[in-house]
Amino acid sequence: MSPERTRQLSTAVKVLGLLLLGALVAQRLDPRSVAGAFHGTSAQVAAAVSLFLAAMGFRVAKWVVQARATGFEFRLLALIHGFLWGILLGVVTPMRLGEMYRFGALRKNGAPLAGADLGLAAAALVLEKSYEVLTLTTLVAAGAMVALPVWWVGAGLWGCVAIGAAFGLGNMPVPALPGRLGDVLGTLKSARAALSVPQRVYIVGCTLVANLLNLVGAAFVYRMFGEIAWGDLLFGLPVVAFSSAIPITISGMGLREMASMQVFGRAGYPESAAAVAATLVFLGTNILPALVAFPLEPFLTKRKELPR
What pLDDT sits at residue 51? Predict the structure, then answer.
């Protein structure tokens, strides 16, 4: 099958998935109950927005360190602008491929990235995403120990965290595989080798803090519609985040809301409110902070040299 045909088929599957899941969510959604359950205050909204913005700041900070350690050149403001635009574009592209827009701010020997350098940048992005998965799995494992009645689920998740930490923070060997997959793993290993252990710890720490800030911000959003225990939030929110990354709809639309209804509905939280809260959290953690990219435009066009 040709690449063009594959892309068309993938898009068709995502649109179909969006329509089916959207219909299921709409069928179970009760707007009146959501409106009646809402009891948020301006202080809660301000707290959630502030936490989401702070979380994005930590996400930018880790990318600055990772890009510099990997050997790329950049202007700081251009890097921030590219990162934020990448977040926006990633929301509306399959597999969040739009996030590669952030590579436009990177340079090597004064020139735009190309060839092996572009591959190394892509590997750095994949490595960053692996750290994201590691920290989210850590939160799910912690939540499972509190929210689930069976201990082995949490224990298994902590085992996954230990293996991920050995690879991401330490120097766990990467298996040598033939073909294209082996090349990808080799480039990923190069991206990891560019970071010292303290730098890896710093990046994972920033990622964990960003996810914790987003979790607390999400708690404010969910509690605007009803009470919910912290253990359920600690377990449920990362699960919802993971579900929205499954590439069967556009930007996880429908799948994210359905997962929220299932996970939090079992904890006694109103299902309709769970769907609306999941959408608001998605907008708050991805769209709202990234809109900062727009005010940066005039500074990028007027200033040619910016401090690193």
Answer: 95
d(CA 122, CA 103): 8
Give dist(CA 83, CA 262) in Å, integer. Answer: 33
pTM of the full structure? 0.83
Whether the pLDDT of residue 98 is over 50: the answer is: yes
Reply yes or no on whether the pLDDT at 188 is more than 80.
no
Strand partners, 112: 107
- Compute CA distances 213 → 35, 111, 267, 277, whole Å: 26, 36, 22, 16
Q: Where are the domains of the chain?
A: 3-72+118-302
Q: What is the mean pLDDT of residues 251-257?
A: 78
CA-CA distance, 91 to 84, in Å (whole number)?
11
| H-type alpha helices, 70-196 | 76-91, 116-147, 151-168, 179-193
Residues 6+ apart with CB under 8 A from 39: 224, 225
Cα distances (Å, whole numbers) of residue 184 to 39, 71, 82, 126, 170: 49, 19, 24, 10, 19
**φ, ψ of residue 186 in degrees (nearest 5):** -65, -40
